[in-house]
Amino acid sequence: MSPGLWQPYSLENGRFGAHILRMTIVKCDCGAEYQRTEEKFLVPHTGYASCKICGATLESWSETTHVPTFDLVKRPDGKPV
Ligand SMILES: [Zn+2]
Description:
The chain is mostly beta strands. It is 6% helix and 54% strand. Zinc ion is lined by residues 28-30, 32, 51, 53-54, 56.
């Protein structure tokens, strides 16, 4: 019995989880900054992400297993998120 063989949601595995491909910072035209995290899913996803401040589309994707998520890290007016 090998411990940790099947723990998809454990914190230890999540920190260095192989499913997270890369994290980058993207900036919207309105000045808001987002942390973009790309994750690999087992099934293809279609969707889009829009800016929470101005509503502009940050990125759209279609039938891909590499799905980005966006977390607002900086508002254009400098106020705390
Ligand atoms: Zn924006």
